[in-house]
Structure formats: C-alpha cells, structure tokens
C-alpha cells in the first residue's frame, strides 16, 4: 500500500481477523494496526500470528489511529459510538469506516457528529479465505485519498466495488453478501442429487465444490457473457441441454429475482431498526 496510516479496529471477530490478516499479507506494517476487543483470546491470537497492537480499551486504540474501523454488531453500535463521541475530541480528524450491516450513514452522523468522514463497507464471508467481494459507499465527506486507502485495504481480502448510494449497497448486500448462502444451497442440492443416484456423499461434495470453483474461475477469466459461457457448455440435444431445460422450466431466473428482492427488502427493513 502507498498510503500507510495508523488504523484501529474496534472488535476482533472473524471479519476483523480476515481483513487485518489480508492487509498484513499484502505488506501493511503490523505496527500501524491496532485492535481492541473486550476479551483477550482473539486479541492474543492476532498479536501472536500477525504482530499487531492490541488492547481491551477502545479509546487506547482510537487515540493511536488515523482511521477507525467499526467492526461490532449493529445492536452494539450506538453504545460504542456514544462512548467514542464522549471521550474522543478529534473524531473529525479521523476517517470512520464501518462494516456493520443495516446502519446508514445519516445514523452514524447522529451517533458521532455531523462532520465525520465516513465510508460504509459491506464485506462478505469469502473474505475469510481471501476471495471476498466488498461493496463500498460514501458521501461527499471523504476525498479520493480516503477512498483509495480503504479500497487498497479491502483489496487485501478479495475485490472491491464502489456503488453510488446506500440503496445500491442494499442490492449488493442481497447479491454478494447473501450470495454465498445461495450458492451453498445450490451446491448442497446438486450434491444431494448425486448421492440419491448412488454417489458417496464425500465424493459428491468434492465433485460439486471443484465444479463450482472451476466454473467461477472460467467466468472470471472469460470475456464472454455468462449466458454465452453457459451456451458453450451446452451442446444442442445433449445431456447438459436437458439439465438446463429442467432448470429453465422451473424458472430459475424468477427464483433468483425473488430471492434477491426478498433480501433487499429485508436490508431496507433492518435499516429502519436503527
């Protein structure tokens, strides 16, 4: 990374561990990273494995930071932010990054003050294995340097995509955030179909997961549309064509559209809870 700042993470859960791990593997100096958490076990693990600074005190890590990542559960966010606002007098000098779902930027301004610089990031669970898809959104409070800093940080655990507003972030959350669950559901159904036809469960899983991985890699490397990639595998009148027809007869597109809309609606409902 070109832009090295002191960065503090409040909360040491799995997502924090993956983000910090990705940053450090990408060359970010461990002595510039601070992590706070109420309990010691996760902190000790991060300190021993990555060499980052750790503390049980949120204020200690924040006072050492130029950027703060809020990585706590949404239901704890108001309390955590209130503590920061009461005790940190230069919050407007620090970049605020939040990875909590559901809470929108105007609410953080209520929590932390109108003049904060803030970026919302929505990472997904494949970030835990360095294959994440993180959505990012902000308002006019941050400059290009802030945007580039956060982009590079989250590129350490996969890829990043800036969206134009928080409504689009809800859609990204319904696709990229919830998407791994959809794929796991589909993979499970394929594996069960194979076992019902006589395949060993372990071999069925190995077959399905490698096929899924290979298809995703082909999609990533190809310039063809997803529809054309599907056609490339589908010989007219062959077995694949018959399988695809079965999916199309069940309106796979309609099912996916319904699932994404349901998740978007839930994201919007959750935003009203805070």
Automatic annotation (TrEMBL):
Q: Which reaction does it catalyse?
A: L-proline + NAD(+) = (S)-1-pyrroline-5-carboxylate + NADH + 2 H(+); L-proline + NADP(+) = (S)-1-pyrroline-5-carboxylate + NADPH + 2 H(+)
- Residue ranges of every copy of the Pyrroline-5-carboxylate reductase catalytic N-terminal domain listed in the record: 7-102
According to UniProt, this protein's pathway is: Amino-acid biosynthesis; L-proline biosynthesis; L-proline from L-glutamate 5-semialdehyde: step 1/1
Q: Where does NADP(+) bind?
A: 10-15
A single BP term in Gene Ontology: L-proline biosynthetic process
The record, for Gene3D superfamilies, names: NAD(P)-binding Rossmann-like Domain (3.40.50.720), ProC C-terminal domain-like (1.10.3730.10)
Where does this polypeptide localize?
Cytoplasm
Q: Which InterPro entries match?
A: 6-PGluconate_DH-like_C_sf, NAD(P)-bd_dom_sf, P5C_Rdtase_cat_N, P5CR_dimer, Pyrroline-COOH_reductase
Superkingdom, natural source: Bacteria
Provide the Pyrroline-5-carboxylate reductase dimerisation domain boundaries: 166-270
Q: Name one Pfam family in it.
A: P5CR_dimer
A GO CC term?
A: cytoplasm
For this chain, one GO molecular function annotation is:
pyrroline-5-carboxylate reductase activity
Positions binding NADPH in this chain are 58
Q: Could you tell me the EC number(s) of this protein?
A: 1.5.1.2
- Keywords, ordered alphabetically: Amino-acid biosynthesis, Cytoplasm, NADP, Oxidoreductase, Proline biosynthesis
HAMAP family hit by this protein? P5C_reductase
**Which purpose does this protein serve, as stated in its record?**
Catalyzes the reduction of 1-pyrroline-5-carboxylate (PCA) to L-proline.
Question: What's this protein's family per the entry?
Answer: Belongs to the pyrroline-5-carboxylate reductase family.
Please identify the protein, giving its name as recorded: Pyrroline-5-carboxylate reductase
